[in-house]
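Entry 14. Structure prediction run on the chain below.
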Amino acid sequence: MSVRKQRLELTWIGKDERPHLEPRILLEDADKSYHAKAHVTENDIFDNILIHGDNLLALKALEQEFEGQIKCIYIDPPYNTGSAFRFYDDGVEHSIYLSLMRDRISILHRLLRKDGCFFVQADDNEGHYIKALCDEIFGRANFIATFIWKKVDSPNDNKVAVTPDHEFIFAYAKAIEHVALRQRPDGSLLDAYIGPDEEGRYYRDRLLKKNGKASLRSDRPSMWFPIPGPDGKDVYPIHDDGREARWASGKESVNEALRDGTLIWKNRGSEDDPKWVPYTREYASQNPSRPFPTLWTDLPTTRQTKAHQKDLFGAGNEFDTPKPEALIERVFQVCTSPGDLVLDSFAGSGTTGAVAHKMGRRWIMVELGEHCETHIVPRLHKVIDGDDPGGLTEAVEWGGGGGFRYYRLAPSLLEKDAWDNWVIAKDYYDPAKLAQAVCKLMGFVYQPDETHYWMQGRSSETDFIYVTTQSLTHEQLAAIAEEVGDERTLLVCCKAFHANADAFPNLTIRKIPQAVLRKCEWGKDDYSLSVANLPEAPREQDEPDDPRVPPKVRRKNGGKAAPQDDLFSGETGK
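Output returned:
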């Protein structure tokens, strides 16, 4: 009898339903892109990306080019608290919230480099569900730690029994065996050393004799042996109380130190009656550091961060739950280096981009809300102009520079005509945009060739795609096939063709839009969803009453959820 293996997983209504996303192209809005007028340093970064649009569609748009390219992802999604924030109401039922997060985190997982790290911030409302969801997507073996940020700096005087003073940041690796986490620089560690010496090094001398636990000769007999002292007499490890001890290093290591002259001898007796004691010299790291703690109680709080946002945006325009720049800095310190690419798909007020810019990281941010223009763009202007005195500016000696490109998602490639047929949205898609969009849909990289008009994209060194709104004749296809030759292949996507499609072995001919109709769902611009769209749990047939089973709980209103505002339609608190 075979035993079915089951895995531990989090389940919810609608978990098996996944959207069929259209991979949109990104269109730059040059009027909103912004760059410094000149290089401030030789390390200025100008190719940063800000996308205004639905973040699930935006992530899908990024997937082809950036899959496996992002070193660090930090997101601060809505916490599903049911509270009405200024920019949106993020209350929504657990099931739809988890589906929304699963769809986004799944793509984010694919975007990470194999040595990349993922950080998601949450509170008690959904935090532990998010942890279970990430365990399923990343694998529990790739969990790094749960960091806890203390977000308040004064006692709460509300008349409640318990106040929430912290939030969680769950950290995961794409593949834990490839991740090299960094330690936190800490110059105070040098306080335990002497120096600097003539070579600028800090050092301390440590007794060669083992002290404390397991320090007796009987504990490690092989590490009891004589060492010839400076006066030629043998020195043994003896505790102050006369007990026979042991050395902290083995005979081979000690003999090597004697040969190299690195054993330090100190006279703990007198000149007439010397008592030579051996030490080893330990040098401090040139860049002293210690592991990051999981309790982050030393960072600015929400109240302090709001004060910074008042300076940035003006009083009354700050976010309700902003995250301090120092918090994002610490996330980047854990796993990134200058030049690494980082991403935040819930950009909020743009804190992640501002921090990444000041720290010399390349960045991508996505934000749907109008504060993408009212908050993020002006904030980044100040950062680039060196006109943002708050946050990390002083600590990292930021003086401005660099820039970013501002993108919007293109409209859906297909639209319904007057007869309810799917057709190319010709009022928007010119030949160049059409070629770019079809390349992405068919899995080709858009790379128009200046010499060969039919080389608009490629999937390999010998496989190409040609997209045209023309109807092609047999003669035209024959001419194209001759140019392509026997060593290359070409996918031709055209309005129509008047020829035998099998007549050209090196060509694959497809009509558009028929060739792409089943690729995804069309004409959908909003994946924030509403709780009203939550699928109703299927009703089971009545069964005989069982006293061990509690009665089923039914919803009011025939099981339909009450309408609520959309989720992910606005700011995320950063």
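Confidence is low (pLDDT under 50) at residues 83-91, 530-535, 537-571.
Filed with the rest of this week's runs.
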